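Submission checklist for the structure archive. All mandatory fields must be present; incomplete records are returned to the submitter.

[x] Identifier: Transducin/WD40 repeat-like superfamily protein
[x] Organism: Rubus argutus
[x] Residue count: 450
[x] Sequence attached
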Amino acid sequence: MWREIGDREAGKLRPNSFSNRIKSNRIQTLQLSNQKEIVSPHSGSINSLQVDLTEGRYLLSGASDASASVYDIQRGTDYEGGGVISKHKSIFVVDKQHQNGHKYAVSSAVWYPIDTGLFVTGSYDHHIKVWDTNTTQVVINFKMPGKVYRTAMSSLATSHMLIAAGTEDVQVRLCDIASGAFAHTLSGHRDGVMTVEWSTSSEWVLVTGGCDGAIRFWDIRRAGCFLVLDQSHSQLGRRPPILQRSATIKGSTSKPLSASQSSFAKARTPQRKHSNGNGAKQSSVGKNPVKGSMKQRLHPGMLSSQDRATAHYGAVTGLKVTDDGMYLLSAGSDSRLRLWDVESGCNTLVNFETARLQTSRPIQLATSPNSPLAFVPCMTAVKAFDMWSGRTSLTFRGHYENVNCCWFSLQDQELYTGGNDRQILVWSPSRLISNEVDEGPAKDEDNWSD
């Protein structure tokens, strides 16, 4: 750390680089916090966690005992150990005893993206409810055709207030908070939809993962999906940056052909055309004017071959789009993790180390933007995988039962995890560096004191 501070003072490091390097170092030192404790009021497994996107202060949780709760993670309600350990009790809880509470397990709980005055819960009782945080009353209630597995709202949206809902029904429904009705439905999956995720680069693009093993991309302004991911359609490694690609393209186009190359190209052209001795017949076969052109014009989601493509052997249990919107991480009931290039729709073939994943329920994934890490619940542990090598960088063990969800807080570089043991654990960066900084002036004062 002192080297980074010295480079920053000398002007060798830019402010953004310095900030990213410090944050990456903090993430690498994550461990079970001994200074912050979340006192969970839930009597069932924790299914969903999210810190609000506006202040980064309030944690929202949903549990299988049909309850949802909110905590202030910046200010503790009680302190122990001489003020060292801060305990964070729930500010309020909405459960079965509430007059408008859910009857069955809350599978998903998300904040309204631009304000902490509203939050949304989805439940196995076939209802999605929008709550007023201040009054803890239900503002809007959407009746769904089946169990609600996952809900999501776009963090970029300025033109709509839509809640995407994945249920045991084959159709994805978009619930409009402004009108209190369904905006429209998205049809294409052949089985229930376990997970939904909005793009982080466009407010109109939605990604869904179904029990049929398919991952579909939707533009909600159009009918039908525009992309179906296929695990056999792949590209090796990371896509080069845009600037680098543009430089290589310019370099290749700017170089003229030499005389020998041009003559070779001219000489090779007729050989390829008349390779079978019949130039007209070869050209007609190569063009394939009717079927080929029709297939190119058809929507990818409408082609039978692409429509049946699968991203996983089994249900898609988790999705997470990276903060730059360029890549998608997916988890499946086949205990496989895959990283996809969003632009090309290709499987990047990153070989993630073998990990046991839950197969019967959706899991909540998390990523860190400052370091290429993906946090994945792996049975009773949470593993941090390097996105580009697939190796396990960190392993977090603290839960006694299976972990269902995790959320990475960008503001404090803290990881929150929830599991079947009804506990919410906090994983914080090591405080060793800060203690050394605090102890520095004290030692100087002792040396100079009489």
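[x] Structure attached
Curator remark: The two ends are 32 Å apart (CA to CA). The domain at 35-239+302-439 is CATH 2.130.10.10 (Methylamine Dehydrogenase; Chain H).
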